[in-house]
């Protein structure tokens, strides 16, 4: 049997405010989060990030390097992914919902769920009628 998962297992050991992120690093991280890099690796173009965030391209490259060094983002070739621990640290209510879901028992179907679905007489009549498509 595995040990239960708690909040400390899914959050960051160091709060985000202790990392001294610059405004460019914060906006880059926010851009990645808002554009789906939290859920799946994203092939992000630094020029597009720079344009959207109002920074220079070199500033974005520096921000991406620092975020990767801090492990707030993960690089796999040209694709970037935001560390989910960052998201959970920023959203403790979602973290609690995930923890509750992991601790909850699985749903078990009963006898009624195993029976074939009943159809109403009106549904049965509709299925018997052949209607033209034109």
Salient structural properties:
mainly alpha; three-stranded antiparallel beta sheet; 8 helices; 3 strands; 7% strand; flat
Would you give an account of this structure?
The chain has 134 residues and is mainly alpha-helical. 51% of the residues lie in helices and 7% in strands. The protein is built from 8 helices and 3 strands; from the N terminus they run H-H-E-H-H-E-E-H-H-H-H. A 3-stranded antiparallel β-sheet has the order 1-3-2. Helix 2 (23-34) crosses helix 3, helix 2 (23-34) crosses helix 4 and helix 3 (46-53) packs across helix 4. The termini are far apart.
What's this, in brief?
The protein is mainly α. It contains eight helices and three strands; from the N terminus they run ααβααββαααα.
The biggest beta sheet reads:
3 strands, antiparallel
Radius of gyration: 24 Å
Number of strands: 3
Please indicate the percent range of residues in DSSP E strands (runs of 2 or more).
5-15%
Sequence of strands across the biggest β-sheet: 1-3-2
**Uncertain stretches:** none
- How many separate helices? 8
Order of helices and strands: HHEHHEEHHHH
- Helix percent reads 40-55%
Overall geometry comes to flat
Structural class: mainly alpha
Average pLDDT, rounded to a whole number, is 84
Taking the alpha carbons of the first and last residues, their distance comes to 61 Å
